[in-house]
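Objective 1b of the project was to move from sequence-level analysis to a structural picture of ligand recognition. The entry below was assembled by the postdoctoral researcher (A.K.) and checked by the PI before modelling. It contains the amino acid sequence of the target and the SMILES of the bound compound, zinc ion.
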Amino acid sequence: MENIIIGIDLGGTNLRIGAVNTKNILVQPLILKSECIANSSSPIYTLCKIIDEYLHNTNTTHIDAISIGVPSSVENDNATVICTTNIRNQSGEAIFSHVNIAKNIKNYFHVPVFINNDVNNLMLYDTIAHHLEAKKVLVGIYIGTGVGASVIINGEFLKGKNGAALDLGHIPYYGKKDPCNCGKKGCCECYASGWRLQQIRKEYYPDSPISELFTLHKTEEPLRDFVSACANIYAIMATIFNPDALIIGGGIPEMKDFPKEQFEREITASVGKDVLSYGFDMIYSTPFVGKGIIGAAEFARKMLYKS
Ligand SMILES: [Zn+2]
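Corresponding predicted holo structure:
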């Protein structure tokens, strides 16, 4: 095999690694717990060891690049992680904060290394999977443990001056006061996230398994409120960007019996009327565990072959 790229999707819970060929086929994926990096005294070295072992165990001798998606904004150098708010070590510190992780990995493997926000990688995968490459404005919001967003305008990610744009999980919900992981109060993630859903379960439905919450209780107020809080963030983003399509993804909308009808109705009811007069598609991200890995590989190819 040739032109292999190692794609990694480093999430809050799992680390997924795999080799991706030029046809975007993922071979020999492996899932580990992210804890092994979070609890390491040298997270970057542990990450290198994981990659090294993967290459060894899969007999992969030649790779073109390594590409890693992280749950954090990434500086415009595609190398420096800004802050992994949702991956913390035992002392409660974010494992990567304003640190260039690409440099050390590149020194270890002597191949190009690219770091990207994990949601941007998911968005690349979804853009290809749904044939949206030619669209002008795409907005993706992925609600999992936290909330991540990605915006593609004319084929380019919106990154902001430094790369910190679209920190949507920490957009303030007006008048709300709940404490957030980031240290602020009343952030979006306090009301529309997997983290919030866990709280709802604990408070109202301690006897229902989390995976059954929508199936058993979707018509009841706590979950209806939760779905409204999720719809709210999509409506805000659609109103700002006037997109061709809204990509709806992440563990929450992918849950069994997620009430899509209520959710879509509330988005439509809340979007600004000018944007609504032109309309937009609502596209659900395809549930597939390898999409973060393939998206990471796609990002590396985009960077490697950029003229
Ligand atoms: Zn916050």
